[in-house]
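Shape is hard to put into words, and the shape of a protein is harder than most. The fold becomes a row of whole numbers, each drawn from a learned catalogue of backbone shapes. The outcome of that step, for a single protein, is printed below.
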Amino acid sequence: MKTSYLVASNRIDLDNVTISNNKTLQSTYVNCVIANDAPKKLDFLILVIETLQINATDTLLLKAKNIGLSDDFSSRVKFWKMRISNPLRTSYAFTSLTSDQVDSLVKLISSMAESLYPLIRQLLSSKESSTLNQERWFLFSSRLKSLIRERMNLQRSYITSLLNDDTNEIFRELLVTLSLSCGPGGSNRLKASLYRQS
């Protein structure tokens, strides 16, 4: 009986912690608004996911369905309409993401980052031979730059600087962001980076 009581007590405590954590998270963003660069950041993170995985769009839509996300992910067109809120795209719609859409994209990106973590870790690892690391970075950056040329407005100075950057510093930052989006609290870390104080 004592064991059952302790187990029940622990469950009640865990439930209380979960409830208080959810309340804390909700109150965290009360005086915050979505940052202006949030659509760009989210779109580029998805672009990195597309670089790391073949047929990533289908995988993203399937993952969205599996984790119970909204109708925004029910088709390629609806998903694309969210992504063209990025002002750096060739096809740009003068729309902004809602907080629900940001939440959904954060959950999706975090879930995909979890699946792709072994690949992300390989690229960010300093323990492997420099030759192997350079080869991986060459393949990754070449494919990512190809996707950028295909989808982004090449007249924008930010895009030009990305394509001409041989240090891959910004690409590395995107990979680090993805790696921090994994695991417990990963989606909260990503979400926090997309909001600013109003």
Remarks:
- Residues 2-28 form the longest helix (27 residues).
- The beta strands are 32-34, 195-197.
- DSSP finds nine helices and two strands in the chain.
- Confidence is low (pLDDT under 50) at residues 1-27.
